[in-house]
Amino acid sequence: MDKLQKCGANYVPLTPLTFLTRAAKVYANRTSIIYEGTAFTWQQTYQRCCSLADSLRSLNIGKNDVVSVLAPNIPAVYEMHFAVPMAGAILNTINTRLDAKNIATILHHSEAKLLLVDYQFLDLADQALAMLAAKTTTKPSVVVIDDVDSPTGVRQGRQLEYEKLIQMGNPGFVPGDIEDEWAPIALNYTSGTTSEPKGVVYSHRGAYLSTLSLILGWEMGSEPVYLWSLPMFHCNGWTFTWGVAARGGTNVCLRNTTAKDMYRCISQHKVTHMCCAPIVFNILLEAKPHERQEIGHGPVQILTGGAPPPAPLLEKMETLGFHITHAYGLTEATGPALVSEWQTKWNELPRQDQAKLKARQGISILTLADADVKDLETMASVPRDGKTMGEIVLRGSSIMKGYFKDPEATNKAFKNGWFATGDVGVVHPDGYLEIKDRSKDVIISGGENISSVELESVLYKHPRVLEAAVVAMPHPRWGESPCAFIALKQNASGKTDDVKEADIVTYCRKNLPHYMIPKKVEFLPELPKTSTGKIQKFQLRELAKSFVVSQNLPSKQKTSQQVKRGIRGYDNQPQEQILALSRL
């Protein structure tokens, strides 16, 4: 048997590009993309991708060149997920909520050769390019992406336009074979919101295997109608950019993730699947009556990641017609690495118990060789008791190749054959993992480890709490203690000032051990968030450092107005904040 050899018949390098080739053959006339009044079939999408790849080659884009794109969830970004690697290049999708400084940093570090920009972001791109010019004489060529459904004609003097590249290219272009499945397919930047951006490199093999694992783990059936409520720039849409093609589904592209647009698309196109961060739950739940539309075609499957969604939030979403599956992952893991697979026997449990199970991060996707929770000092696995905390570690073919041009950070991330996530979790007796915190967010108060996630889950059960985040603050006796930041829902009169700090503390006393009760509650109009909707705890930690707690009553060095001026929310982030997100 040792003499049997690999050959072209029994060994083909893995790449998600084969998903599009197959879709064009077997789902040729099935709708591939819907964007407002524009629609394409899979055969048309394949031909458009071939045409674009051919045009990229004519622009001298080739092997290992980086092609960046700054655009919302429009058909062009979807097509580039296939066309760019078909040309042999590497796709870099840029977070559209970044400021010019960070975009310039990414363009410089990635050495992008071409930048495709949606017409709405031309001014932002020009600012970034001006900053880039101060760093290097090498700037990428720019291609303008006009709206394919309602062209505006906006070019700002530029000659290259996306649809013209499609028209100029050869739809019969034959992409070269991927010879090495370890070759890079995508470059995604992440920094965890506090440091210089790091470029996470994905391989063709990792992208292929992760895609298959996710459509299996989520049990995505044939002909899904997938709503793009998750940014395609976020871990390449958690690989569903390639996954929808693998299932011969329909991509419903969405320029803006407003409640009105999401409900409209769900109802009009009978959406079956969507992904999102938990912040989108609030957008859907808080929708005005005129923005909502009935979901009459069965539950919409939602895969969510990020902070563990509190059980009460899951229950509310279920009543609206959404079925939630929780996942956990990182940019470095090519998107979700754990999925909370549902077991039939749980259907008999009370809804509240079901919600608690769904809030767990779950078990590893099939791509991973293993996922565990370990004591990083000894590398010993923690007991499966659901209580003993350690760091979540992963290993498998879907883990990143490494950080681009950063061997030091790469070596630090890979520890004893494992990728150390920086997330603290436990393993339950049934083998399901549950995050308890980021390692830096565990609050150690008088020797007791307090999970901010557990405290936040209790706070979310309060009927008036819209958003909650818990961080450590200084304490003269215990070293540090919990500080809760809360955004409230309005009452019937449209006010929020009827809920006081004492009300929240009293509520917590009834539902938590004494040592976990927050020693300070600060109300904010909105909690600061990253571009993908995750609460930015590093800002809150800085604010909490200015609070002073006496042995009896809490006091603070800053007034509430000073605190509120010190942060900005989801749509008004300080310019100095760097990149979202390494966590899903």
UniProtKB/TrEMBL annotation:
Gene3D superfamilies: 3.30.300.30, N-terminal domain of ligase-like. Residues 454-534 form the AMP-binding enzyme C-terminal domain. Keywords: ATP-binding, Ligase, Nucleotide-binding. PROSITE patterns: AMP_BINDING. The keyword Protease does not apply. It is found in: Cytoplasm, Cytosol. Residues 21-404 form the AMP-dependent synthetase/ligase domain. One of its GO terms (cellular component) is cytosol. Pfam families: AMP-binding (PF00501), AMP-binding_C (PF13193). InterPro entries: AMP-bd_C, AMP-bd_C_sf, AMP-binding_CS, AMP-dep_synth/lig_dom, ANL_N_sf. GO terms for molecular function: 2-methylbutanoate-CoA ligase activity; ATP binding; medium-chain fatty acid-CoA ligase activity; propionate-CoA ligase activity. Belongs to the ATP-dependent AMP-binding enzyme family. PANTHER family: ACYL-ACTIVATING ENZYME, BUTYRATE--COA LIGASE AAE11, PEROXISOMAL. This is Acyl-activating enzyme 12, peroxisomal. The lineage of its organism: Eukaryota, Viridiplantae, Streptophyta, Embryophyta, Tracheophyta. The gene is AAE12.
